[in-house]
Write a structure and sequence with these properties.
alpha+beta, Rossmann fold, six-stranded mixed sheet, five-stranded mixed beta barrel, disordered C terminus, Hpr(Ser) kinase/phosphatase, P-loop_NTPase
Length: 304
């Protein structure tokens, strides 16, 4: 089982189907996406339970009052690794978001004491870029889900768990001597790497430095960084954040306020680069230069 950095009082069980939620006298389809992810609501307004179904692979039965999650497979091909992956990469981030917290689908590393967050659609290389920065000396937070919080005008990030998931070509290129891996899920060729986290490594929330939204490579294969407007960044943050129930208007308004505040405070950049391992050192250099430029400038009063 992955080690969750964030303390959680949710009780999790795995096993055979347990039937429909215990409070269920009626059900309602809340939403479904184009990929087949579906959320059902059961029970009354005061005793709500949810069934989050992941395609034809697995189901999570969620009881917010009892703080319980039961994961079970729908497909005979689903493995324990598949259920663990869905729990940590999908269920937990969505539950934290349902509690009113801002959880973004992002990879993150610490560079010179500040966090660089990398966001973008699946397949754009977040995990590979984060892994390469980690290999180059940056401190790893994770490559999937990050909890963002605000405190006295500053923003902080904390990973749900520290880990990397890479496709075989990235694994071979970046970690040629890595032997400790395990499957992420039965439907993916990605592998989870065993990451040794030093005991003295900071696991508390760390201050954000910049947001980098990954874009497809340009036709000229140039490495480009473009400053994004707060409005553009806010929309991109909403698009790359987690929700359990996107139809909940109150939570949606709260998320918009959180994303807007973050976009107005933390500089955001659109990052495009050729997807070739040889270009990564140049990409790192641009990211590090931009992170250095985002550091607050000292004034005479800072030394008083």
């Amino acid at each position: 089982m992955l080690k969750i950095d964030l303390a959680t009082d949710w009780q999790v069980s795995f096993g055979s189907p347990v039937g429909q939620p215990t409070s269920a006298t009626a059900s309602k389809l809340l939403w479904t996406d184009d990929d087949g992810l579906t959320l059902m609501q059961y029970g009354s307004d005061t005793e709500i339970e949810y069934q989050l179904q992941f395609w034809d692979e697995a189901v999570a039965l969620i009881d917010p009052q009892q703080k319980t999650i039961h994961m079970h497979a729908l497909s005979p091909d689903s493995t324990p690794a598949t259920l663990e992956h869905l729990l940590h990469d999908q269920v937990f981030p969505r539950l934290l978001a349902h509690e009113g917290q801002l959880v973004v689908h992002a990879g993150a590393v610490a560079i010179e004491g500040r966090l660089a967050l990398f966001l973008g659609e699946s397949g754009l290389g977040k995990s590979t870029l984060v892994a390469s920065l980690y290999q180059a000396g940056a401190s790893l937070l994770g490559d999937d889900a990050l909890l963002v919080s605000a405190d006295h005008g500053s923003f902080y990030g904390q990973s749900l768990y520290r880990g990397l998931r890479l496709l075989p070509d990235s694994l071979l290129s970046l970690f040629p001597a890595q032997t400790e891996t395990r499957p992420m899920a039965h439907y993916s060729s990605k592998q989870r790497l065993t990451i040794a986290v030093p005991e003295n490594q900071n696991t508390s929330p760390q201050q954000l430095g910049a947001l980098f939204f990954l874009e497809p490579p340009s036709s000229d294969q140039e490495i480009t960084l473009r400053r994004m407007s707060p409005a553009e960044s806010c929309i991109a943050l909403i698009r790359n954040s987690f929700s359990l129930d996107p139809t909940d208007s109150l939570l949606a308004r709260g998320k918009l306020q959180q994303a807007s505040a973050l976009a107005n405070q933390i500089p955001s950049f659109a990052l495009s680069y050729p997807r070739d391992y040889a270009s990564l050192p140049q990409v790192h250099a641009k990211i590090r230069t931009q992170m250095a430029e985002c550091l607050p400038r000292k004034t005479d009063t800072d030394s008083l």
